[in-house]
Each structure stands twice: as structure tokens, then as C-alpha cells.
Amino acid sequence: MRQIDKNKALPTIIHVDLDAFYASVEERDRPSLKGKPVIVGGRSHKGVVTTANYEARKYGVHSAMPMFMARQKCPQGIYVPGRMERYQEASREVFRILHSFSDVLEKVSIDEAYLDITHLEVKPHKLVEKLKEKVYQETGLTLSVGISYNKFLAKLASDWHKPAGVKAITPEMIPGILVPLPIKKVHGLGPKSCTLLNNLGLYTIGDLLELSEEFLVDLLGKSGREIYHRIRGIDHRPVNTHRERKSLGIERTFPKGTRNRQVLITYLEDFSKELSQDLKEKKLHARTITLKVKDENFKVQSRGKTLFQHINDAEEIFQVANRLFQELPLEEPLRLIGITASNLLSEDLQQLSFFDL
Ligand code: TTP
Ligand code: MG
Questions:
Q1: Is-catalytic flag, 112?
Q2: DSSP-assigned beta bridge partners for residue 340
Q3: What is the best residue among 19, 63, 141, 143 to mutate for testing ligand 1's pocket, by most ligand atoms within 8 Å of CB?
Q4: Residue 355 scores a pLDDT above 50
Q5: CB atoms < 10 A from the CB of 71, how many?
């Protein structure tokens, strides 16, 4: 185990998470929604809430709640279907701004990132204020930020004063600040592990601090070791700028099934362009292209093709996707079509292997 070197300055890591992301994009695009409870989610009776804004959360509405339950809790809420492309676009804008602050950036999800700002000669709080202001001015969205010396604590801190809050956790605050927290706050402890621990009478991080490393490993397997260190404020995971992506994909569900090949081909053309742009932005090339369709009876079919070389050009992606599509018998109208690029290779690695030869 690496020890903290007292003479060496600790890193400065920030964790950024947009507030009620999809709902905030809806509010931004339709100012008449401001101040009202907004719930984004599936339209059908069986659908679930994707996210709710903070106004709606006051009524007890939250992500993953069945839609009918949300309607019971908040009948006056404004219910809107999701617009994934719009959220992806907003996310891209935000990430462009984040990148301009530090290129040591790890994208965790559509609305969440870690930035290592150790190398920048600026006070973290100053930088964070500027960053929040710029994101708000340019996108109309607010975010919450955690500042600390490792990823675990930065993520914990970004959740502290949501929405639009900033919280810093410094080494002097450890372990006091952690002791009273419920165990679900420990990144890496999922609902299953929390139930297991609760059943043993363990509810707070303070309770976990009483346990030996061996005991936690026995109980939770390999991750027990990480948890043992995390609850002591120790986490050496670096901000990983080259987070390995396994695949990139785009798909769309239609309100009504269609067998119109021309319409479907137009989708494939659009997807190929989007996918190509996404791959190029991430400096990736793909060797496998997979076409996925779902028909009106919910039957899913997917066909893939692995090429001899890596590609990221829109026309090349479309050629492969279209060939796969032409081979597909269209027995039933389709409700969904999508393409995925996998077997990815980053340009940096391509260069590396070139020099390695
Ligand atoms: P989160 O960051 O978890 O949630 P949020 O941004 O809506 O709210 P918070 O202020 O608490 O951060 O997720 C980001 C987006 O991801 C969210 O707006 C919608 C989507 N999402 C789902 O599609 N399903 C889910 O179960 C969750 C939790 C989020
Ligand atoms: Mg969020």
C-alpha cells in the first residue's frame, strides 16, 4: 500500500455533476417550466421517471420511480418525454467547457466528470466559481462541485450541497466528517452490500471503521480492501483521461412501427454521421459495427461485422451498417433501430503501436 507522503503536496481533484440534468435542459429550453415540478420519463403507463427537478423532488418523486406513482405523488407536475439527442448536445457543450479548464479530465457519465487540477496555479475555489459561471452563462445549466484530494472524497463532496453547491473536503476533516455518514455514501457499496451490512447492525461509516480489513474482505470480497481504505479517506485512483470505452452507440425508438426502408436508411445515415463525429472527437477508430433492431413484438435482432481495419469515417460506417440492414428480413414493422461501434482503438495507442514496431 502506498503511504501518503507528508512532504509531498496532495493532488487537487474536483468532481462535477450537473443538477437534475435532463429536467434542467427541459427547463432551459422552455422557460415557462421554471419554478414548476418537472418530471422527465417514459410516457407509457409502465414507464419510469428518468429524472425529476428539485421542485418535483419535494413531493417525493425520484429517478427510477414508476411513472404512475410519480403522478400520484405530484399530480400537478409537468411530465415530459425525454429528448436524448438534446441532452447529449448539452452534455457535449458542458464537456467542452470543462476541458478548457483542465485536460486531465475523466468523463464518468453524460453529466459527471472528474478533473485533476493539481498542475494549475490557481486557487481551487476560484477555478470552481469561474467554471460554474461559464457553464451557466454558456449553457444555462447549473452544476455541483466537490473539491478534495482524491476521487472518492471529491464525489462525496459534490453531492453535499446539491443543487448548485460547492463543498471542499480537506485532510483535517478526516475522519470526523465521514464517521456519521450512512454507508450508502461509500462509492462502491451498492444496495446489496448495504443490506448485507445493515443486517449485521452496521449503518454508518463509523460502524465500518470498527471492522478489520480482513473482515471486510471476507464479507465483500476483493472490493472490501478498497472500502477499508476509502472510509479512511484513502483513494489512489488517478483521474483517467483515457478511460477505455468498450463501445459507442446510437439508437432510436419510434412512436409507431415502420417498414419503410428509405426512412430506416435515412436514420442509419444520420447515426453514421453522429457516430463518426463522436469517434473522431474521442480520437477512436472502430473495427466492429453492429446493427440492432427491435420489432413491434419486441423481438430484438442484432447483426455485426468485424472489419480488417479500424474505421471512423461516416461513409464507411454507413456502408457497413447498410449492408447489414439489407441482409435483414423485414418481417414486422420496426420500433427501434440503432448502430454500435465496438472493438475500439484510440489514436494514441495506434501511434504507440506504430513506434513499437
Ligand atoms: P444523475 O446525475 O444521477 O441525476 P440528475 O442529474 O438528474 O440529478 P442530481 O442533481 O441529483 O445530479 O443522472 C444524470 C442524468 O442521467 C439524469 O438527469 C437522467 C439520467 N438518469 C437516468 O436515465 N436513469 C437513472 O436512473 C438516473 C439516476 C439518471
Ligand atoms: Mg446529475
A1: yes
A2: 249, 290
A3: 63
A4: no
A5: 16
Residue 356 has pLDDT above 60, yes or no: no
Residue 24 has pLDDT above 80, yes or no: yes
CATH among 3.90.1170.50, 3.30.70.890, 3.40.50.1820, 1.10.150.20 for 183-230: 1.10.150.20
Residues, Cβ < 5 Å to ion ligand 2:
17-18, 21, 111
Level-2 CATH architecture, domain 21-83: 3-Layer(aba) Sandwich (3.40)
pLDDT digits (tens, 9 = 90+) for 187-243: 999 999 999 999 999 999 999 999 999 999 999 998 999 999 999 999 999 998 866
Report the predicted TM-score, pTM, of the whole model to 2 decimal places. 0.71
Domain boundary assignment for the chain: 13-19+85-173, 21-83, 183-230, 247-355
Full DSSP string of 103-133: S-EEEEETTEEEEE-TTS-S-HHHHHHHHHH
> pLDDT at position 2, please?
44
Does the Cβ of 292 fall within 6 Å of ligand 1?
Answer: no
Cis peptide before 175 (omega within 30 of 0): yes
